[in-house]
Amino acid sequence: MPNWLNDAVFYEIYPQSFYDSNGDGIGDIEGIIQKLDYVKGLGCNAIWLNPVYDSPFMDAGYDVRDYKKVAPRYGTNEDLVRLFEAAHAKGIRILLDLVPGHTSDQHPWFLEAKKAAENEYTNRYIFTKTVWDAPPEYRMMCGLCERDGNYMVNYFSSQPALNYGFYDVTHPEWQLPSDHPDCQKTVDAIKDIMRFWMDKGADGFRVDMADSLVKNDDEKIATAKIWRSVREMMDAEYPDCAMVSEWCSPERSINNAGFHMDFYLDHYGNGYSRLFRFGEWGDLAVFNKNGKGNLKAFTDEYLPNYNRTKENGYICFITNNHDMPRVTAYLDKQAIKLVNAFIFTMPGVPFLYYGDEIGMRYQKELVSKEGGYSRTGSRTPMQWNSGKNLGFSESDEPYLPVDRNADAPTVENQKDDPDSIYRVVTDMIALRHKYADLHGNGELEFMTDGSSLPFAYRRGDMVMYFNPTGEYFEIDTRYNGDVVYKIGQAEIADGKIKMQPQSFLLVNA
Ligand code: NOJ
């Protein structure tokens, strides 16, 4: 296990929207290099970079046309290597995005696979035996190729599924078992891509749809076996590199598949969604001040998962990502401050999505861009200052519009404001680094059972009290100690924690 993960705080960068250094309207790698000091200033010591590979951008780059080539709009492979080097010089690691489940339908492998004549790539994707065979239980594209067969897609129609075989083979005339040599070749091809970038300086990968490899693999047994072999390769050849899975099933991902980290994602009704986004635009969220949230629905799910996986890896809390509405769509500013206090004091490895540190808004009404659809509103350009396109780009046609409201948050107008979300985010990250009890490995004990609000948890000597509600509360406590940090009005007095509405207290007991 790479040691650095214990104190890692990640920053997710959506490259097309971060900083445009050459005025063409699209963020680029040189732009990220120029902003590394900013990332470091937040206290982040690692970056997850969304896909930067050559792509027709039907799904914002998750439709890869060439895994080994940086998309020209972002720069060159040499620029990416320069980014690795510049980041490392500042103590920042970089995880690239690995998309192993599918490629673009423009990928050379697929262009070969769809030919009638058999060739090296005939089994790289999943084709039925003839076009007259399209079992409804699979998502098939029909009648589009010279080859007499339909192909399975993994996500959008432009993303044919790579072939890792089937665990339960129900149609042997076209489904390969996952141990078929041609399926092994797909695994080898993915390992080859990983080595290619780790040899150039990448520190590992965020793995897209990590659970999607082997089909008809309900328990994910064969899929986990593939990732185990990837982990063995990393342990042997790149022991300081790490992988985080888009899976949201920590026992499978961390314990079985060997991922170092697994994201806690926003699946409606699950523990994570209960915290910040549940109900009609958050009206049933734990952090909504109306106090209607159900923390127990979170603790009942999270704590068993945490206890069963904590020796092997990390569950990752995210402020948001590029796939869901920013939390500003759900909660008020004071609540968002408490959200950040929570995310940066929990075990595991936290991820901050670009722009969340200044409370960027989710822009609801935008027309879809590059397969974003409802996600587009969370992918708008980073807001740096009061300049043209809020400092993102000199172009008259930026990738997406920036927030047009007069009070749009920017780094410039938030940075020195003591009442800003930026202040809480940077303070909390600094405290996380300062106190070992708050690192990824530290212990966690909930002091309230979750059935009512407010709530509290302890990590070593550090005790966190949260009153996310709109009412005043007093909590009996067995802990005294020094108040290290507070949000809103809260104090320890007369053996009690006295908490005004929407407040947080961090005590070193
Ligand atoms: C998950 C990614 O986060 C999302 O943006 C993408 O569209 C799908 N996987 C398909 O690759």
Describe this structure in words.
Helix 7 packs parallel to helix 9 and helix 10 (333-343) packs parallel to helix 12 (421-434). The chain is built from twelve helices and 20 strands. Strands 11-10-9-8-5-2-1-12 form an eight-stranded parallel sheet, with helices on one face. A five-stranded antiparallel sheet has the order 13-14-15-20-17, covered by helices on one side. Strands 16-19-18 form a three-stranded antiparallel sheet, with no helix packed on it. Strand 14 (455-459) and strand 15 (462-467) form a beta hairpin. The chain has helices at 29-34, 36-42, 77-89, 108-113, 181-200, 221-237, 250-256, 271-276, 295-309, 333-343, 411-415, 421-434, and strands at residues 10-13, 46-49, 53-54, 66-70, 93-98, 140-141, 151-152, 204-207, 242-245, 261-263, 314-316, 351-353, 445-446, 455-459, 462-467, 473-476, 482-487, 490-493, 496-499, 503-508. Helices cover 25% and strands 16% of the residues. 50% of the residues are buried. With 509 residues, it is of the alpha/beta class. The radius of gyration is 23 Å and the shape is globular. Bound molecules: 1-deoxynojirimycin. 1-deoxynojirimycin (NOJ) binds next to loops. 1-deoxynojirimycin binds at residues 59, 62, 99, 155, 208-209, 246, 322-323.
